[in-house]
Structures are given as C-alpha cells and as structure tokens.
Amino acid sequence: MKEKLFRAIDDRRDDLVALTADLIRFPTINPPGEAYTPCAEYIGDRLKKSGFGVEYVRGVGTPGDTDRYPRTNVTARFDGRSPGPTVHFNSHIDVVEAGDGWTVDPFAGTVKDGRVYGRGACDMKGGLAASIIAVEAFMAVFPDFPGAIEISGTVDEESGGYGGVAYLAEKGYFSKPRVDHVIIPEPLNKDRICLGHRGVWWAEIETRGSIAHGSMPFLGDSAIRHMSAVLAAFEDELFPALDRKQTKMPVVPEGARRSTMNINSIHGGQTEDFRPGLPAPNVPDSCRTVIDRRFLLEESIDDVKAEVTSILDRLKSERPKFDYSINDLFEVQPNMTDRDAPVVTAVAEGIREIFGKEPDYVISPGTYDQKHVARIGHLFDCIAYGPGILDLAHRPDEWVGIDDMVESAKVMAIGLDVLLRGAGRS
Asked: Does 3.40.50.300 match the CATH number of domain 2-197+334-421?
C-alpha cells in the first residue's frame, strides 16, 4: 500500500509544480497584506473539488486588518468514514516583499532546472502545495480512513501571526477536541523535524533629555548621549554574558545555540524630513531603540528582562540626569515538542522510509506559528516539517526543489497513515 501511495504522489508531480507556481503568482506581500482573499479563495476552491468543507475566517480587528487589506484565512476539513483523530496541516500564505537582486520575476512562478522560483516558493507555498498533494493522494488511496484531515492557509505569519493562526486559535480552531496533531510545512529541510523555537522578547527603550539650542548644548541634555551609554553597557556587559549562555536545545544554526540580542533600530533627535535643506540646531530630547532578544529554554522571561533593566537602573543611579522608559512589544516563551510525541514519531517514520536515515531533530532560531498553537490553543503535538532550504527564505531568486516537494509529500502522507490508520505501529 505504501508503493501505491507513492505512485499516487508521483502521478501528481506535474500538478504539484503547477499548484506551487499558481500560489506564487498571488503577490501576498505582508505588509500590507496584498492578495490574501484571492489566494485563500483559490486554495478553498481547490479543496472543495476534493470534497472538503471550506470556511473563510477574517481576522477582524487584528493588526493591519482593513476593508482594503482584509486578513482572510481559509480552513478546510474532510471527515473520514469513522471516528478518529484529526491531523491539521497549517501553512501561511503571506510572503515578505521581493526586494532587489532577482534574475527572474519574483511573482511569475518560473519553473526551470528542477526548481520553482519566486517569492514564497520556499517559505512556504511549496510546503503548502506539498501538503495538499499528500492529502489528496492519501484520500485517493485510503478512501475509508478514520478520523479527519484539515488544511489551512493563514495570514500574517511574517508579522507575528495575529491575524492568522493566533486569531483562529482564539476561536478554537487549534484546540482539542477539534484537532489532535498539527504539521506546519515550514522550510526546515526535507530530512529534518523542527520541534519548536527559541523564545523572543521585543522591547522599545527610550532615553530622555531636554531640548536646547545646538550651539549651547550645555543648556540641554542629549538623549542620544544617554542612549550611547546604554549601548556601551550592552557591548561591555550584556553581549558577553549572553554569548556564554548555551542550550541543550538542538537549535540550528550552531551560532543560535546561545542567547542573542539584536539592536533592531535607533531613532533619535531630528528626522530626515529636512532634506534637501538643513537640519535645525537642536539638542535631542528623546532617543528610542528597539531590541530583539532571543532566549533559551533554560532561561525565564523575568530573568531575561531583568538583565536589561538592571543595566538601565544602574545607569540611572550613576549617570546625571539619566532617565528611561521601557515598553514591551512582543514576547513568546521557548517551545519544544517532545521527541516521542505522536506527530514527531509519525513524521520520523516517513523520513526513515523515504531517505533511509534517522531524521535530524532541530529547533528554529526564530519563532513561527507553532507558538500560537501551543500558547493559545494549548495543543502541544505540533511540529514544523516541509520542503525547502531555510537559508533561501526571504532572499532574491528564492526557490524550492521539485524533487524535494515530491519527497516531502511522501513523508507527509506516511505521517498521515501512521496518525490516522496506525500504519507501521507495533
């Protein structure tokens, strides 16, 4: 029966390529959220033809949702012939901007040299297409399967997922008893299972001063100079301390197996809207920086925040006129699914079957929508598995390999077989 399943997927190879190219041709750029509705409807129309019940759910009131740019999600469900668990494949349909440096049209869905090129090919429309093909082949070969299969195309993952998976999770779409197992076809390489991700804390720090004439800065107080003291303390104290923290989580790449912090942006003083004229001679009374702190399973969010605020409080006590405020923007706890969880063992069996090797178990350096499945849906049998090379995501000439998609579809189909029919279990 496995050979029959594999043949069913091989027979759909051209369909898989065409489906991937079609999905790429929807320029679902986020921000602002272009073409979400027509892309969702294309997916829904496809799944209706396979017998799925289809629902469109708009993330009303979520960041960026407007009548011009509605946060339109599609979710589809097919109930089998008898009761059983539900397996849900979730893919985000939004992509980042194309940027410069392309040698092909980023939204043409170009097929050449065994690859499909375009923005979102790897991250993650190739994975979405592979999951649809896997499901359709499985249903054709095993029409009497028990349980249920769901497929969703959701929005805004690239900007936090609030109009997509987070919104649906709040509505019960990613919780038991509706769903038991979730596979997110993110591009983590076809022989890897991604168990979760590091934690993240974004915050904005503002230092304050007082405005004065630039020819007499001694009459004012420069907020930028105060921020420079903050950054110097980070360089001298915080960054070396973070670099010494290591994790047992199998994070890839190797450099992400430690705590990290990125300075996202700095804004201080006068804006550049004076150009092409000259700036006014002012001492800046405000300077803001946004930090992006990634942390490990071994760390608590309270300790992560305290490392920063302790430096700021010390500067306030030591530096004349120093004052600051800090505003939390975003925080997510680290997440790691157990290796012996049902969805992990099912997909691992598929990798062994297709590639003749044990899967690599990895953790993503950044977050993805698994965070909402766990945090809001309280569903922990969730992984990321899909075709595509992570290093190609968001880059010019992004591509996904056709053979990789076919092989990943076979892995997904075996995973379905294990989870729904119990195939391969002793």
From this structure: no
